[in-house]
Amino acid sequence: MEQALKEAKEALEKDEVPVGAVIVHNGSIIARAHNQREMLKDPTAHAEMIAITQAADYLQNWRLTGATIYVTKEPCAMCAGALVQARVDTLVYGAPDAKGGACQSVVNLVQEPRFNHRLKVISGVLNNECVKILQEFFSDRCRK
């Protein structure tokens, strides 16, 4: 999660919503990303989506079985769906998202029993640090 926080800090420096993600497979980081929606002018350029694409390229396979993704904020519906489709084994996230979280807070797409794949979910890892960087970003917005 510390590596994901580094990615979130990079996003913050670029004036992006500070969310970072890393994907680990066989004990090694195979992908790392942060939000790039503003820079790329792309609504799908979330940290998780970019990291999934990098990991699939690294493994030369769209199935990311055996992989764990670490994300600083609970994934949205788009990213949760992509994690299911990519067959990621485990999701570890820091801050919950009471307005858009699709892994526990609002809905739970990654453990939906009707889907053919479900992820193990570990939440609240480095929660305080993950919440703090988000609060810093959004409090700056409120002052402008």
Write the layout of secondary structure elements.
Elements: H1 2-13, E1 20-25, E2 28-34, H2 37-40, H3 47-59, E3 67-73, H4 77-85, E4 90-95, E5 120-123, H5 127-143
Parallel strand pairs: 3-4, 4-5
Antiparallel strand pairs: 1-2, 1-3
3D structure, described in words:
The protein has helices at residues 2-13, 37-40, 47-59, 77-85, 127-143, and strands at 20-25, 28-34, 67-73, 90-95, 120-123. The mean pLDDT is 96. The longest helix is centred in the last third of the chain and has 17 residues, at 127-143. Strands 2-1-3-4-5 form a 5-stranded mixed beta sheet. It contains 5 helices and 5 strands.
Quick recap:
This protein is of the alpha/beta class and 144 residues long. The protein is 38% helix and 21% strand.
Question: What structural keywords apply?
Answer:
38% helix; single chain; alpha/beta; 5 helices; five-stranded mixed beta sheet; 5 strands; 144 residues
Instruction: Output mean pLDDT.
Output: 96
Number of H/I helices: 5
Rounded to an integer, what's the Rg over CA atoms? 14 Å
- Principal-axis shape equals globular
- Describe the main β-sheet briefly: 5 strands, mixed
> Structural class of the secondary structure composition?
alpha/beta
Please tally the β strands and state the result. 5
**What is the H-and-E element order?**
HEEHHEHEEH
Alpha-carbon distance between the termini? Answer: 30 Å
Helix content: 25-40%
Largest beta sheet: strand ordering: 2-1-3-4-5
Strand content: 15-25%
Given as residue ranges, the uncertain stretches (5+ residues, pLDDT < 50) are none
